Amino acid sequence: MDYNVTSAGGANSCTSSVDDWDVCTNKTEMVFNYTTCATQMLYSSKQWIKLLI
What we know:
This protein has about 55 residues and is mostly beta strands. It has one domain (about 1-53). It has strands spanning about 5, 10-15, 20, 30. The strands form 2 sheets. A two-stranded antiparallel sheet has the order 1-2.
């Protein structure tokens, strides 16, 4: 899945058309490709994040 990041100042990054965010390979985890987009999207000191949908 492609995504764009907009900073608080309005700057855009991660605007390429390559797959940066993989939620299909393993439906129990989200994988961000930091090679194609170095902007850190999520952080957890415990190595996991719970999402409520």
